[in-house]
């Protein structure tokens, strides 16, 4: 992974506007970017867009042998990959610290919290179980990858349906979608990871790439504290994950405020995920074709051609700060008062003086003595 450098001007500017109660894109401290969920043709495939951050998720299943310590439980595997398509700083076929960090957070949030009924994935005890694999691909990295990836993981798992299985004697028959209806995944609860950027005592939800980079770096010689706080919570306001990266927190009110904001935000996200899945099921029952090509428009194709930095501050208008004296000066053609003489430099030891009054005459004055 290549290093991303940010100038001191960007750091100082971002620090000043955040301290002043504003953000670059015009959002409030607790306001998140626009969330969009689109489903593919297969069950368990979706694209989640959080602002300009986009993640593709796909769930697949296969029959494998269970683990010896868990003979009656299925297996859940989560894998996230970041390719150069997500950003120019990433390299192909090379695992970075960011990839390992995101995979660990997703496993803690979804495997350790036991949100999936793994016993329902068992076919034959100690012989055959279902193994669910969640593959995540980052399409564009514009900050807050963990929240976008967690929403994609939750949506794809809740949307996925595995084939039905029938056991006759020692034989196990896996039916196709045409023979029997698929079986949805059983979820006990719906956890979501939310990210907060810490600027000293300020807490900012859903930070973009620039805000994440600035809060993790040393912004000035004064040693401002900054870091990334990840909170995993379900719709019942139960804490599933808490992770801090960066400087240590010396104020407990920061964590308390983050939990209050995360509780309300998680409930909204879970309700949105459930409603989109219900709408997708209704559309599939009506034989409506689903494909990612429907969401690919000219705006999506040209999204990478946008400017690197877009500023949209609230309550800011160029016309409001225009000086009223400037408007009067524009109406009247006011010329500056001319000086009595305009001295124009010319040849060495020579000056050309132009008189402004009367007829224009040229007088040449030489410092040298004239020869007779």
TrEMBL record:
Concerning Gene3D superfamilies, the annotation shows: GHMP Kinase, N-terminal domain
Its subcellular locations are: Cytoplasm; Nucleus
- PANTHER family listed in its UniProt record: EXOSOME COMPLEX COMPONENT RRP45, EXOSOME COMPLEX EXONUCLEASE RIBOSOMAL RNA PROCESSING PROTEIN
Xref: Pfam families: RNase_PH (PF01138)
Q: Where is the Exoribonuclease phosphorolytic domain?
A: 31-163
Q: Which GO terms describe its biological process?
A: exonucleolytic trimming to generate mature 3'-end of 5.8S rRNA from tricistronic rRNA transcript (SSU-rRNA, 5.8S rRNA, LSU-rRNA); nuclear mRNA surveillance; nuclear polyadenylation-dependent rRNA catabolic process; rRNA catabolic process; TRAMP-dependent tRNA surveillance pathway; U1 snRNA 3'-end processing; U4 snRNA 3'-end processing; U5 snRNA 3'-end processing
Q: Which CDD domains match?
A: RNase_PH_RRP45
UniProt keyword Cytoplasm, yes or no? yes
Entries under InterPro entries matching the protein: ExoRNase_PH_dom1, ExoRNase_PH_dom2_sf, Exosome_comp_Rrp42_subfam, PNPase/RNase_PH_dom_sf, Ribosomal_Su5_D2-typ_SF, Rrp45
Q: Name one GO cellular component term.
A: cytoplasmic exosome (RNase complex)
Its primary localisation, in coarse terms, equals: cytoplasm
Give coiled-coil spans as residue ranges.
none
Family, per the entry?
A: Belongs to the RNase PH family.
Q: Could you identify this protein by its name? A: Exosome complex component RRP45
Q: Name one GO molecular function term.
A: mRNA 3'-UTR AU-rich region binding
Region feature Disordered, mapped onto this chain: 324-343
Keywords in alphabetical order, please: Cytoplasm, RNA-binding
Q: Which residues fall in a compositionally biased region of kind Acidic residues?
A: 325-334
Q: Does the keyword RNA-binding apply?
A: yes
